[in-house]
Structures are given as C-alpha cells and as structure tokens.
Design a protein that fits this description.
Elements lengths: L16 H14 L3 E5 L6 H17 L15 E5 L12 E5 L1 H12 L2 H5 L7 H15 L4 E7 L13
Length: 164
C-alpha cells in the first residue's frame, strides 16, 4: 500500500476536470485494483468533493484517448468509508473486523492531530465517538471493533459458501 499526496488544496477541494485528471494520473501510476474514498453524503464539502473525484478519476483513468499521463487503467472496485461528518444513518455493504490493537492505532493517529481533535473543544468528542462507532460496527459482526465500507457497485461472490 502506498499513499500519494496530490496538489489539491485542503478546504478548497472541488470536483474539477483538472482535479479529476490529477487523480486519474495517480491511478494510472499506482494501478490499484481497489480504491477507497469517502462516502458521498457528508457535511464536510471536501469529503463530498473527494468522493466525486474518486469516481471521476476512476472513469478518466481508463480512457484510452486522453492527455492524461500514463497508460489507461481500470480500477476494478471502489469502496467508500463513512467520515465523522456523516449526518445520515448508514447501512454498510460490509464490515471488516478490526482487533483492539488496530483500533488503538487508529485512535492514536487521530490524537496526533492535537490541534484538531485534542485541544479543540468543538472536536474533543470525536475520538471517543470513533471508538464507540468502531465497537458498534464490530459488535454487529462478532468482532471487538470493525470498519464499515460501502460498495459503489453490486458485489459478486464466487459461491454462496464464501459468504460465511
């Protein structure tokens, strides 16, 4: 797994053709089979724009006739995660079980953003809310914690038995 930072502005993210091309070029370079992006219904405008950019970049990355750098590439699947600003009751397509050690690493990573989540009274509840949410989703699948994901397309399975 590799993380790539694009030159797209924080708090000013927009679903533009240039931004889609940037995402598409990154997808062509990395050639992933799966891309994970934010769920499109969210109060944070950057999360909504990022969701649209994942979809648009995925589409543009496969085009054979374009000015986008790199060889065309089709991302097989896009999955979405719920961000903390989601204001709707969500029903995920699947939940990935997560152990308490992994959950703690996630919470510690959030706490590293001290000015945003620790020292900011308006967001002081976020880390606790993330833990509660992870434990809730995990409880639904018999795990200590879990991460919900949303498929953008219908998922096929190799057999009925593979579902258990």
């Amino acid at each position: 797994m590799r993380r790539v930072m694009l030159d797209l502005p924080n708090r000013e993210l927009a679903d533009t053709v240039d931004a889609r091309w940037a995402v598409a070029a990154a997808l062509r370079e990395l050639r992933p089979r799966i891309v994970v992006g934010p769920y499109p219904v969210d109060a944070h405008p950057d999360h909504v724009a990022a969701s649209a950019l994942v979809a648009g970049g995925r589409f543009y990355a496969k085009l054979s006739k374009s000015r986008i750098a790199g060889e065309p590439h089709l991302v097989r699947r896009v999955y979405q995660y719920a961000a903390i600003h989601a204001s709707v009751a969500l029903r995920p397509s699947f939940v990935v079980p997560v152990g308490l050690e992994s959950l703690q690493r996630k919470l510690d990573a959030l706490a590293a953003y001290r000015s945003q989540f620790v020292e900011n009274p308006a967001n002081a509840h976020v880390i606790g809310r993330m833990e509660t949410s992870a434990r809730y989703w995990g409880g639904l699948v018999g795990a200590e914690a879990g991460e919900p994901f949303f498929a953008t397309e219908v998922l096929g399975v190799s057999s009925f038995a593979s579902l258990v």
